[in-house]
Amino acid sequence: MEVWLSWIMGLIPVLGWLLWWWNEIWYALPVERRCSVAGVKLPPGNMGFPLFGELFTFLWYFKILRRPDEFINSKRQKYGDGVGMYRTYLFGSPCIITCFPSVNKFVFRANKAFILEWPNAELMGATSVVMVNGKAHARLRSFVLNAINRPDALRQIAALVQPRLVSALEMWAQKGRIVAYHETKKVTFENIGKLFVSFEPGPQLHEVEQLLHDMVKGMRAQPLNFPGTAYHRARQCRKKVEAIFRVEIEKRKSRSEETITDLLDGIKQIKDEEGNKLSDQEVLDNIIALVVGGYESTTLESMWAIYYLAKYPIVLKKLREENMTISQNKKGEFITSEDISSMKYTNKVVEETIRMANVAAFLFRLATKDVDYKGYRIPKGWKVILWLRYLHTNPENFDDPMCFNPDRWNESVKSGAYQVFGGGSRICAGNMLARIQLAILLHHLSVGYKWELLNSDAGFVFLPHPAPADRVEVSFSKL
Ligand code: HEM
Ligand SMILES: *[C@@H]1O[C@H](CO)[C@@H](O)[C@H](O)[C@H]1NC(C)=O
Ligand SMILES: CC(=O)N[C@H]1CO[C@H](CO)[C@@H](O)[C@@H]1O
């Protein structure tokens, strides 16, 4: 008995030691050997515990302390700055975190070595622009950009989204009290329906919204495909969404002339350099990818705009002045994309909102080969986490970064320090669309309404996306 006990007591420290060092020994040690042959080093850092890696540290900063940027600051303190790269193990894979402008730029540019890899292709759509790499990506991307990023496309979009938005704001004022997140989500989806497939608000649009909601939920879940799992449900939902959109595609085939009334028409009729159009499946996959890319992001940006303007009345006042002038010239008409490009201050508020919202906090890439950067190695098969939010909240890149100050955009930004939309060949395809929608919202809000935060001391949450904890509850009325 005593012998056993002393054996067990003796084993505990050994087990503890193994638990503590396992990931280092398993993942980092073999790579370090390869590195020393090549005369480079693995970036400093800590691989954490088996299976979980640094998940608990991550959650500690993001969920408990709610100071996410301290996650990186603590690494800088512990391991020094180096070139802004740290090794870790997170979300099921050994990773290199990059958090300085120049190394991020390097990763974006080396898009052959660092590819985007989505886990569940059947949910995202195998031929969607976000799923493919290399030549296939460039081809699909040109279709998507043609449909949503060209000046004439943006002009149409600006006209299409305003009626819904204006009537939504009127309804908010009637309610008198709203949760901004819920309301911006509703109007964003109504506009997506209109913009993409000409669906009017009603049971069908509502059904599509529910289906997409469950589909996106499944993208974050474990890919276990049997009845009852979120993933299984997501696959069913995707099939139903596809069926609904397929009916729309068929309807349009029987139409005689080639009219373009929405994005589905637009993307179907674009031809590439060889004169080829997208197949039906490609149209479907990319329309769905655009909805997924645009829905939550636009909702959150709009919510943050409402929040910051309530917090910074001086900004709202200046916005009003600029926009009142525009509005008087327009005599009640909707504003155009040309008006928007002349609204200098409004555009600064747009950039500042997007900078501070940090909707895309980090991006993932997979290293397809060993890559060396300034004496440090990113090993083949590891993930790269581009820690975008740290660029935008680091005082070395932006003075007094937590202050909402649109005037900072008078001067140009330090190169590579503003990567809210990512960078390189995959930079957000909807970035101009997102900006124009936000400018339109700012215009109609500031010209016609006043609002106040009901919980101005509400804290913030950072997962799955940054947001005030109360999702921005405000009292809302006509000016
Ligand atoms: C302010 C709101 C938005 C933010 C912050 C944002 C952010 C981003 C980021 C960071 C990426 C790069 C992903 C990566 O490299 O891994 C991206 C890609 C993309 N975004 Fe956005 N986005 C926004 C709005 C939109 C909207 C409104 C749409 C479309 C309606 C859209 C469609 C896309 C698409 C299709 C891609 C993939 C591009 C490609 O892989 O070539 N985004 N977005
Ligand atoms: C930025 O530019 C605007 C208009 O040109 C000016 O009114 C404002 O004072 C400037 N702000 C700063 C901080 O330079
Ligand atoms: C705050 C602001 O930019 N105000 C501008 C409003 O528009 C007039 C004329 O377009 C400008 O003179 C103001 O500077």
Describe the structure.
With 479 residues, the chain is α+β, with helices and mostly antiparallel strands. It has a single domain, classed as Cytochrome p450, CATH 1.10.630.10. The protein contains 17 helices and twelve strands. The strands form four sheets. A five-stranded mixed β-sheet has the order 1-2-8-5-3, with helices on one face. The chain has a three-stranded antiparallel β-sheet with strand order 4-12-9. Strands 6-7 form a two-stranded antiparallel sheet. A hairpin with a 2-residue loop joins strand 1 (85-90) and strand 2 (93-98). The structure holds protoporphyrin IX containing FE and 2-acetamido-2-deoxy-beta-D-glucopyranose (2 copies). The site of one 2-acetamido-2-deoxy-beta-D-glucopyranose (NAG) has 2 residues, from loops.
CATH topology: Cytochrome p450
Structural class: alpha+beta
Bound molecules: protoporphyrin IX containing FE, 2-acetamido-2-deoxy-beta-D-glucopyranose
CA gyration radius, whole angstroms: 25 Å
Text of the CATH class: Mainly Alpha
Number of helices: 17
Task: Identify the strand order in the major beta sheet.
Answer: 1-2-8-5-3
> Quick one: overall form?
globular
End-to-end distance: 82 Å
Low-confidence parts, pLDDT < 50 over ≥5 residues?
none
Mean pLDDT: 93
